[in-house]
Amino acid sequence: MQHAQIVGWAHSKFGKSDAPGLEGLMAEVVPAALGHAGVDACDVDGIFVGVFNNGFSQQAFEGALVGMTLDDLRHVPAARLENACATGTAALYSAMDFIAAGRGKIALVVGAEKMTAVPTTLAGDIMLSGCYREEEDQVEAGFAGIFGKIAQTYFQENGDHSLELAMIAAKNHRNGLLNPYAHMQKALDTAFCNTVSDKNPLVAGPLRRTDCSLISDGAAALVVAAPEVAETMERAIGFRARNQVNDVLALSRRDVTEFAGPRRAWKASLDEAGLTLDDLDMVETHDCFTIAELLEYEAMGLAERGKGGRVIRDGITARDGKLPVNPSGGLKSRGHPLGATGVSQHVMAAMQLAGEAGDMQLPDVELAGVFNMGGAAVANYVSILERVK
Predict the structure, then answer these.
(1) CA dihedral of 298, 369, 107, 245, whole degrees rounded to 10
(2) What is the mean pLDDT of the chain?
(3) Over pLDDT 90: what percentage of the chain?
(4) Active-site amino acid positions
(5) Total domains, the chain
């Protein structure tokens, strides 16, 4: 099967937006993405929208909102996807399946979330909907409490890794300084991130505020096209591989520090692409919490289980390391508007491959990995991207 290719994109500033709702956020990126691709709205065959919502907004039926942004989109078939924090990539993969099935030649993918309009405590409870509420509903600190439990279990099994988590946070904040779209463009050094204080309190288990991604508003969009159409475009970013692997929702039914789903997703995509991890030039990964990035090092194969801390200590994932991870600042610095995140990660990687990443640009990026995770390693998506033209 030939995969559709990314031919254009747009990205809003993440953070607390003045836009009153999702429609305004989408309007920031839809015309811009079509313009970047050189595609007229009337040429779009399908619209795929990623929005988590679940209480962030009273407005549902989000797939129809894109048709409000441009009149020529009003009659285009549209659908809304939701897959917890992997909602954006679910929308992208559905758009690519639509093209692979021959239903259309050009699709528009939009990921968006308006999270800051509700109180922080309510936001935490809404995000807990991405877990198995039958068993996990009473976890303290909402969704952060889930990863606090994962971090606590990891520390019990492998020793205290607070320093390594602080190093991951500091790395991603350094990288975020270079990203004009990032929610937090502020340097936070390892010492600050590793010290519990009034400005950096404990949030859940051993996780401090600097170990947790931000509650953000934002949107991102991609235009994807069939390969024969992409040949006629100014730019084209191809997929060497793309795979989704799920794991059981309930934490009680799995080893929470194994990240078995991400491990299987990485293996499936590397095998499909005929590559090893050593072939990749960068990775955008899902650091919703710093413990997630550390466990993803192990799931990728950068380290054995329980040894992920050495990856950050050895500088392997720094901008100038062997495999830069999250040169955009990741979710930790860029922000994590749930429905937008998966789309945003693919935009960040595509910018690097196209040489359009500005101050974030790494040298000689030819192959990039993207990992987007829904829930606590439940819905796991791995893409391997390359520049086609």
Answers:
(1) -20
(2) 97
(3) 97
(4) 85, 336
(5) 1
Give the model confidence (pLDDT) of 145-161 as tens digits. Answer: 999 999 999 999 999 99
C-alpha to C-alpha distance for 250 and 242, rounded to whole angstroms: 25
In a domain, 27, yes or no: yes
- Residue 255 located in a structural domain: no
Short-list 217, 196, 184, 202, CA closest to 141:
202
Query: Is the Cβ–Cβ distance between 343 and 220 less than 8 Å?
Result: yes
Residues 224-266: pLDDT tens digits? 999 999 999 999 999 999 999 999 999 999 999 999 999 999 9
Residue closest to 148 by CA, chosen among 251, 291, 298: 291
The domain in which residue 15 lies consists of 5-118+216-230
Tokens of 88: 């954006």
- Residue 188 located in a structural domain: no
CATH code of the domain in which 82 resides: 3.40.47.10
User: How far is CA 295 from its chain centroid?
Assistant: 16
pLDDT in tens, 329-369: 999 999 999 999 999 999 999 999 999 999 999 999 999 99
How far apart (Å, rounded) are the C-alpha atoms in residues 297 and 384?
16
258 within a domain of the structure (yes/no) = no
d(CA 88, CA 110): 8
